[in-house]
């Protein structure tokens, strides 16, 4: 029986690792500006382990 747990990076973790503050990352998520593999994500706890492509798209600013 394998009981090894795998660490899961969340989208919030990935955004913070990219160098933005947690507050700003949460704002981007709440605004609907964050995408994982072209799908809009608003839940900061959504898993986003690599190789998932995480991006921020701000339109109209």
Structure description:
It is built from two helices and three strands; from the N terminus they run H-H-E-E-E. With 61 residues, it is α+β, with helices and mostly antiparallel strands. It has a three-stranded antiparallel beta sheet, with helices on one face. The termini are far apart. The mean pLDDT is 90.
Please state roughly what percent of the residues sit in beta strands, choosing from under 5%, 5-15%, 15-25%, 25-35%, 35-45% or over 45%: 5-15%
* Biggest beta-sheet profile: 3 strands, antiparallel
Name the assembly state.
Answer: single chain
Please, what is the average pLDDT? 90
Task: Using the alpha-carbon principal axes, give the shape.
Answer: globular
One letter per element, helices H and strands E, the order comes to: HHEEE
Strand order of the largest sheet: 2-1-3
DSSP, total strands: 3
* Shape-level CATH architecture: Roll
In total, how many domains does the architecture comprise? 1
CATH topology: Structural Genomics Hypothetical 15.5 Kd Protein In mrcA-pckA Intergenic Region, Chain A
Distance between the termini: 52 Å
Structural class: alpha+beta
Poorly predicted regions are none
Q: Using the CA coordinates, give the radius of gyration.
A: 13 Å
The helix content, as a percent range, equals 25-40%
Q: CATH class, please?
A: Alpha Beta
Individual helix count = 2
């Amino acid at each position: 029986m394998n009981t090894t747990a795998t660490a899961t990076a969340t989208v919030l973790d990935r955004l913070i690792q990219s160098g933005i503050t947690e507050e700003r990352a949460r704002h981007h998520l709440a605004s609907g500006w964050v995408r994982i593999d072209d799908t809009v994500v608003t839940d900061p706890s959504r898993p986003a382990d690599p190789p998932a492509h995480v991006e921020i798209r701000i339109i109209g600013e």
